[in-house]
Amino acid sequence: MADSYIQNLFAERIGGNQYGKSQAIYKFEKIKRARRAAMALNPTAEIIDLGVGEPDEMAFPEIVEKLCAEARKPENRGYADNGDAALKKAAAHYLDRVCGVKGFNPDTEIIHSIGSKAALSILPATLVNPGDYVLMTVPGYGVFGTHAKYYGGNVYNLPLWEEKAFLPDLNSIPGEVLEKSKVLVLNYPNNPTGASATPEFFARVVAFAKEHQLVVVHDAAYAALVFEGKPLSFLAIPGAKDVGIELHSASKTFNMTGWRCGFVAGNELLVKAYGDVKDNSDSGQFLAIQHAAAHGLEHPEITEKIAAKYSRRMDALVEVLSKIGFNAKKPKGSFFLYVKAPRAAVRQGGGRIEFKTAEDVSQWLIAEKLISTVPWDDAGRYLRFSVTFVAKNLADEYRITDEIAKRLGEVKFEF
Ligand SMILES: Cc1ncc(COP(=O)(O)O)c(C=O)c1O
Q1: How many angstroms is it from 221 CA to the middle of ligand 1?
Q2: Is residue 282 over pLDDT 80?
Q3: Which H helix or E strand runs over 138?
């Protein structure tokens, strides 16, 4: 059949007249397909899903109740635009109380987001001209880079190596790239490595940004999910507000992924620019949702309970994987356990399966062991296990980790 004229109208940034014709299958689609195939072949078996990147539980009842009460108020019904005072005030209080970041002006230094993903897609419009460079870490969450490219920008990838504690080596950026760079995008605790930053690293980032006139965008989507101590905010570092902004999200912090709410805080000029482009992109999140998120921000004990659950599950999974030979170390936060992928698996009766990539391992795990993970081959070969698997209760949680141990224990892994 001949192409519709529409085929010739697509913008080059999404493939131009070749849009939709590529046969390439991307990683997450491959995982989905392998999962579907495993389920079709084993319709009664239990798939253990350690691949999901979002909480397994609903928002706490008090947040749901707050939403219901706020949804009934006529004054909350309309366009929220860049938001009212409730979430901004709660966010400033949260930054102070939870992150030790003092003195934020809720009127000028904070604006809500319809989730951090939306903020990461809006922000490039404020900074990126054709030919500009954006510094991104890999493996990572690439949304800012994707949109930077839409605007004609270039992405320079900074690999996160285990030997460097999964922190980027800022000195490795070539001079000619640095000259054209405008933005450094960071994310700690990090997806997928689970690594945390340190105040020393963030202080180096502030100095580096000032020296090279860069804007720092710190995506703190997992910042609140810490297993010890307080969350580390980039904004807590002296001088951070001169160079950047931080993105907080209710998605993981309060089990509100589908609700779509967060906030952007930091440098006043950057927050204003974000607000201006946002105002031309959306009409704000429903005020009832913003007020429910504000309730969460005023109740950080909710996040502490969520983090305690992940910490407990992480302990169990680290123990199971370590016994099987993985070099599994509990991260300081997030819900991701990131481990080196094995090079081979040897079946008990003999028979050796060689893996060339982490993706090979992940495909094998889903097909043979009905365990879903996310592979990363960007800087070394790693598997990401999420402790957000669905369990009915504590006993079920332990049953599932025992089941993982049993299934993986049937082979001997070589690393
Ligand atoms: C690093 C990172 N940033 C941002 C997001 C998206 O957050 P939100 O739900 O607030 O859009 C995710 C979601 O998986 C993520 O992993």
Answers
A1: 6
A2: yes
A3: strand 133-138
In residues, how long is the chain? 415
Determine phi and psi for 12, rounding to 5 degrees: -55, -30
> Across-strand partners of 85?
none
**Mean pLDDT score across all residues of the chain:** 96
pLDDT at 29: 87
Which residues have a Cβ under 8 Å from the Cβ of 294 and sit 6 or more positions away?
Answer: 86, 87, 89, 90, 91
Q: Show the beta-strand stretches assigned E in 169-261.
A: 181-187, 215-219, 244-249
Cα dist from 292 to 74, 136, 300, 308, whole Å: 16, 32, 13, 22
Average pLDDT score over residue span 8-25: 92
What number does the ligand 1 atom closest to the CA of 219 have? Answer: 3
pTM above 0.90, yes or no: yes
pLDDT, tens digit, for every residue of 232-246? 999 999 999 999 999
Ligand 1, atom 6: nearest CA belongs to which residue? Answer: 117
Task: Give phi and psi for 336, each to the nearest 5.
Answer: -110, 130
Q: Tell the residue nearest (CA) to atom 7 of ligand 1.
A: 116
Q: Which atom of ligand 1 is nearest to the CA of 249?
A: 10
Ligand 1 within 6 A of CB of 253: no
53 lines ligand 1 (CB under 6 A): yes
Average pLDDT over residues 388-412: 96
From 117, 160, 185, 245, mutation site for ligand 1 pocket: most ligand atoms within 8 A of C-beta: 117
Cβ–ligand 1 contact at 115 (below 6 Å): yes
Q: What is the pLDDT of residues 65-106, one digit of tens each?
A: 999 999 999 999 999 999 999 999 999 999 999 999 999 999
